[in-house]
Amino acid sequence: MSKLIIANWKSQKNIKEAGIWLDIIKAERDSFEEGVQVVVAPPYPLLPAVAEKAEEAGIEIAVQDISPFEAGSYTGAVSAYNLSGLSVKYAIVGHSERRLYFHETHADVARKVTQAIEHGITPVVCVDHDFVYEQAAVIDEEYLEQCIIAYEPAGAIGTGLNEDIGRVRRVSKRVRDAFGDDIRMLYGGSVTEENIGEYMLVTDGALVATASLKPEQFVKLVQAVK
Ligand code: PGA
């Protein structure tokens, strides 16, 4: 199974910076280990420009959020239908910043999972260790194993305080118990080129924000994935 490394730009970068980032990744793609799949999650306005260059850069595309509703009268929301034709393969849902600043509930996240899957997009569901079961409980049972889970301890995000590897292993058992034995799990929270190797021993990839922003730094991080 390949390792998925998702670069989450959050609300950073403009279109010019996105182009530079993609050019550098494209130039370095042959130095990445086979079986390592790079994914980028740009801010929405940059999506068409990124989609145009993604294939030649050898990367896949994620969105950082998706509407819990079908296309319709939901001002400001971006529906899964809006994304057709833009090569979006994954949707990050329930990131801790969405839960904290936008007051998203487990039920909201579950509706986003449904929207993504019904439109052929794989949801990457972010969870912390203390609500793995609660989040799984409200997701449609038939969709549980179609999710990818990102274990993201809130205290590790953007702090430099990356999670203890033993703890990640324990949480991955809980995630399998809640979502299914074959579930793919990523780790996110202060992942760097120095520590990514150990997380790859116990997970299927990583969700990376801070260390994904500078393309040269991100290239080194991806090169460290074996
Ligand atoms: P970080 O963020 O890499 O800056 O710690 C991870 C995330 O928010 O997914």
Concise summary:
By secondary structure, this protein is of the alpha/beta class. It contains nine helices and eight strands.
Q: What is the secondary structure topology, with strand pairs?
A:
Layout: E1 3-8, H1 15-28, E2 36-41, H2 47-57, E3 60-63, E4 88-93, H3 96-101, H4 106-118, E5 122-127, H5 132-138, E6 148-151, H6 165-179, E7 184-188, H7 196-202, E8 205-208, H8 210-213, H9 215-223
Parallel strand pairs: 1-2, 1-8, 2-3, 3-4, 4-5, 5-6, 6-7, 7-8
Helix pairs in contact: 1-2, 4-5, 5-6
Bound molecules: 2-phosphoglycolic acid.
- How many E strands? 8
Number of domains: 1
Q: Mind telling me the C-alpha Rg? A: 16 Å
Bound molecules: 2-phosphoglycolic acid
Assign the CATH topology.
TIM Barrel
Q: Runs with pLDDT <50, length 5+?
A: none
CATH class: Alpha Beta
Strand neighbour order, sheet with most strands: 1-2-3-4-5-6-7-8
Average pLDDT, rounded to a whole number, is 97
CATH superfamily: Aldolase class I
CATH architecture: Alpha-Beta Barrel
The helix tally amounts to 9
State the helical fraction.
Answer: 25-40%
Largest sheet properties: 8 strands, parallel, barrel
Strand content: 15-25%
Shape: globular
Q: What is the end-to-end distance?
A: 12 Å
> What series of H and E elements makes up the topology?
EHEHEEHHEHEHEHEHH
Helix vs. strand class: alpha/beta
Tell me what you see in this structure.
By secondary structure, the chain is α/β, with parallel strands linked by helices. The chain has one domain (3-223): TIM Barrel, CATH 3.20.20.70. Helix content is 38%, strand content 18%. An 8-stranded parallel β-barrel has the order 1-2-3-4-5-6-7-8, surrounded by 4 helices. Helix 5 packs parallel to helix 6. It is globular and about 45 Å long. The two termini are 12 Å apart. The model has no long low-confidence stretch (mean pLDDT 97). 2-phosphoglycolic acid is lined by residues 8, 152, 157-158, 188-191, 207-211.
